[in-house]
Amino acid sequence: MSSLSRDDIGGPAQPLLSVRGLARHFPLRGAVPGRAGSSVKAVDGIDFDIRKGETLGVVGESGCGKSTTARLLMQLEKQDRGELVFDAETVGSHALPLRRYRRQVQMVFQDSYSSLNPRMTIEDSIAFAPRVHGVARDEAVDRAHRLLMRVGLDPARFAGRFPHELSGGQRQRVNIARALALRPRLVVLDEAVSALDKSVEAQVLNLLLDLKEEFGLTYLFISHDLSVVRYLCDRVLVMYLGKVVEIGDTERIFSRPAHPYTRALLSSVPSMDPDARTLVAPLAGDPPNPVDPPSGCHFHPRCVHAEPVCATLRPTLHDIGAGDVACLMYEPGSTHSAAPAASPVRTPVSGSIAA
Amino acid sequence: MSASPPLVDEALPAQRSPGYWRGTLRRLARDPVALGAGTVVALLLLMAIFAPLIIPYDPYQSSMLHRLNPIGSPGHPLGTDELGRDLLSRLILGGRLSLFMGITPVVIAFVIGGAIGIFAGYAGGLANTLVMRTVDVFYAFPSVLLAVALSGTIGAGIKNALLSLTIVFIPQVIRVAESVTTQLRSSDFIDAARLSGASPFTIVRVQLLGNVLGPIFVFSTGLISVSMILAAGLSFLGLGVEPPSAEWGLMLNALRNAIYTRPWIAALPGVMIFITSISFNLLADSIRQAMEIKG
User: Which chain A residues are Cβ-neighbours of B183 within 8 angstroms?
Assistant: First the structure.
């Protein structure tokens, strides 16, 4: 089977989903609209592409906007600004109405229990979406059974059961089957394996890899577990306070993280080697309040490389080879002492934090 | 991957799990309180339905010679009322009207209030605010006062009493329906259903209704006893059922002058109201308990 789906429009080089300037600010109760500090800037103007057939990991601390990004991509939440371009067609435009977009993009939620209707048998839950799209009942149930089998649950034993009669791992398999019932091209996995036991998690991860191959899927994998991201993802996107701070190939991000925040995040992973323990706390303090983010670079109050310029200038994403980073140290002519002069060539900054 | 679909078809016949409602029924059958209260409710309903067939005397036949006979009088096992009418017959026949007045407003309020509440809860936003603030206005009055005021305004009579009781209960049902719907509205499985591209109507019908009707139904069952007491109260005040009809609240009113001479006779309609309402309440509580799914 080709890795490109039957619905493909733009060819392999065309990004499956382009996110352009996406922003979602949640207004605060009782605040004066339009004034500074009147809203939570959960997602604050982000740009990235999801390439066809890849697994893009999204990492960041809790509250950095990962889940809001997922809900925006799924259009469960309306963005305030920005647009989504799915295979060259703008989502919500005449060319790609929301209903047709949703057939191609599905999501697996973190909580395997609350994402299944407690009063519906699992075969009905899986068959619901195909039925909505006009598939006859028998055929939809048949499809549900085949999907159940594909995710490793014997339909004869499980199809008629209710969610509370299943284990967490089994339920998450059901959720995956349901997400695949409309034959989507992009699957958003929002902490989909985080709540599972380690052994079950490994099984489900391998299932996800198999399914990706078989159905030619593209994954957006949101997680706070960096080792899982490293195992599963082709590229990684690092978010901090509603913004993308770094995006690049997994290999490069884990071996040569560029952004100080990425470095701190990676060094927070406990090492298996007792001699390589992290001795210095990688990140001090909590993330700043997204209601009133710091001026300039949002990360500067916690950054070890911060200089006065960081409090005034807002960095933008710059190509550093094998990815982009939003940090003044990489921005030509930013006047940060580590920044290259205003020329397109730049060298990686020296001296990484103990990792 | 190599396992082809037809393989399953030869497997064992699908094992259906017993199902949610059957499980609820089984839990209910094991609960002694539910069984007791259920039996009483069933008996009361049967009594009301077959009242004309089982009453020993004509409940409207008065007799000046046999006024306020005590309990256990020959021919009148529960005595007679202030006009000498057989109390047993009147209590049996009165149950008809009392239960009717108790259940009807609740059923209407369940349908109307449930629909409005689910709509408000699912729609959210401005529609929700409008509906819920309107409901708050009704909540500003105690339900007894509201029922009396409404009945007093639109006049006495069974129809008007039913109408005013319905109006009293609709906001209460709306509030419960709205809150359970709002709670479920943001749950992941509703989000997942939205992702399927289903219309709001389909989502409410297929995914939401089964989850919210139970709690709304249980709450409404609890309202039946309140409705009976309020209906009895309206009749007591002369705003509901009018004499000579037999209705427990009205009988309580008529017999209140006898409270010093024949206290047991005077208390009997009250006892019936008490038994009925407590049975409905206990049954509602048991159903709610039985409906809770243990994950």
Answer: none
d(CA A230, CA A247): 13
Q: Give the Cα-Cα-Cα angle B245, B251, B254 (nearest 5 degrees).
A: 105
Other beta carbons less than 10 A from residue A202's beta carbon? 14
The whole-angstrom distance between B34's CA and the closest CA on chain A is 23
Residue B293 confidence (pLDDT): 60
Q: Is the pLDDT of residue A46 over 70?
A: yes
A308 touches chain B (CB under 8 A): no
pLDDT of B109 above 70: yes
* Cβ-Cβ contacts under 8 Å, A103 against chain B: 197
Residue B279 near chain A (CB below 8 Å): no
Q: Between A and B, how many residue pairs show a Cβ–Cβ distance under 8 A?
A: 99
Between CA A15 and CA A235 the distance in angstroms is: 14
Compute the average pLDDT of residues A169-187. Answer: 93
Q: Please check whether residue A240 is in contact with residue A263, taking contact to mean a CB–CB distance below 8 angstroms.
A: no
Residue of B nearest to A147 (CA): B5
Burial class of A65 by CB neighbour count within 10 A (0 to 12, 13 to 18, 19+)? buried
Residues with Cβ within 8 Å of A157's Cβ and at least 6 positions away in sequence, in order, are B12, B15
Of A66-70, A348-352, B64-68, least confident by mean pLDDT is A348-352
| Residue B83 confidence (pLDDT) | 73
Residue A167: DSSP 8-state: -
What pLDDT was estimated at residue A33?
A: 63
Q: For residue A210, what pLDDT is reported?
A: 93
Strand A89-90 with A81-86, pairing: antiparallel
By CA distance, what is A190's nearest residue in B? B188
Q: Can you give the pLDDT at residue B189?
A: 93
A195 touching B, CB under 8 A?
no
The answer to whether residue B178 scores a pLDDT higher than 50 is yes
pLDDT for residue B6: 38
Cβ distance B15 to A117 less than 8 Å, yes or no, reads no
Note whether A116 contacts B: Cβ–Cβ < 8 A: yes
Give the pLDDT confidence of B126-164 residue by residue, as tens digits.
999 999 999 999 888 888 888 888 888 888 888 888 999
Q: Which of A230-244, A252-266, B69-83 has the lowest mean pLDDT?
A: B69-83
CA gap B281, A223 in Å, rounded = 48
Collect all residues of chain A within an 8 Å Cβ-Cβ radius of residue B8: 145, 149, 154-156
The chain-wide mean pLDDT, for chain B, equals 82
Chain-chain contact of A102 with B197 (C-beta, under 8 angstroms)? yes
Query: For residue A163, which of B181, B207, B28, B179 has the smallest C-alpha distance?
Result: B207
Pick from B1, B21, B22, B196 the residue to mutate for testing the A interface (most A CBs within 10 Å). Answer: B196
In this prediction the pTM is: 0.79
pLDDT at B193 over 50: yes
Phi-psi sector, A88: left (phi>0), alpha (psi -120 to 50), beta: left
A24 has which bridge partners? A43
Kindly state whether B206 is in contact with chain A, defined as any CB-CB distance less than 8 angstroms. Answer: yes
Cross-chain CB nearest to B211 (options A118, A133, A150): A118
The Cα B252–Cα B75 span in angstroms is 22
- B24–chain A Cβ distance below 8 A for any pair: no
Partner-chain contact B191 A159, CB within 8 Å: no
Q: What is the three-state SS of B106-136?
A: HHHHHHHHHHHHHHHHHHCHHHHHHHHHHHH
